[in-house]
Amino acid sequence: MVGERRDPPFGGSLVFLLMNLPLGVLAFGVLTSFTAAGLGTAVVWVGVGLLAVVVLAVRGAARMERARVYALLDRYVDLPYLPLPAGKQSLRWKARLKDPSTWRDLAYFFLLFPLGLVEFVLVTAFWSTSLALAALPVSYRWLPGGAYYFPSEDLRWLTVDSAVEALPWAALGVLFIALSVALTKALAGMHARVANALLGPTVAQRRRMERWWEDVEEQNLVAG
After folding, report:
1. 65: helix, coil or strand?
2. What 3-state class would DSSP assign to 139?
3. pLDDT (tens digit per residue) in 81-139
4. What's the pTM value of the predicted model, to 2 decimals?
């Protein structure tokens, strides 16, 4: 489960959100290519091996993603997997494929691309606007023509060509910085909840794990 409901740290949230788009693109590309190749060649058994690699890779990547959420957002996501049964590999693979956590892990990595795209656009748009406005009393000198024109150079409703004229814009930039900090934390908190919903155990899975551990303890007591 996600631990405390406090806001995630700002620095970790910013790094986390900026990482999501490249990781999402990588995950989407690898999963779609390997899954398509596996399904296309399953009739000659080569695809079965590829699909098995996909299952193992997704479960391993999900463990790394839980660690990334904890390291950057300070939100702990429990492992949802029951121990695999002892015995033949066929039984172990059957357990992996029947485990809904495997498919929820897969859904998370397919969702990471569009979610990361939205997060990246919002974060970069807000922060670039905020910093550009806050720095305007200094930066207007290096703009084309030595002035800032709003809304554009061709459509000059307002012209800023001095530090004094840029001060109101800088104040607006400071306000936008505060909004950007709040937005960054809110997006990171939302992503942490999505990660917990897809990568963490459901209520039913948690109950099954509790029953499993109770059975193990009873067997140990009987064996002792």
Report:
1. helix
2. helix
3. 888 877 788 888 888 888 899 999 999 999 999 999 999 999 999 999 999 999 988 88
4. 0.84
Contacting residues for 152 by C-beta, under 8 A, at least 6 apart: none
Give pairs for 210-214: CB < 8 Å, separation 24+: 212/82, 212/83
Q: How far apart are the first and last CA of the chain?
A: 33
CA angle 183, 189, 190 (to 5 degrees): 90
DSSP 191: H
d(C-alpha 28, C-alpha 159), whole Å = 45
Instruction: Respond yes or no on whether the N-terminal peptide bond of residue 85 is cis (omega within 30° of 0).
Output: no
Q: Is 149 helix (H, G, I), strand (E, B) or coil?
A: strand
d(CA 66, CA 199): 7
Contact (CB, 8 A) for 177 and 130: yes
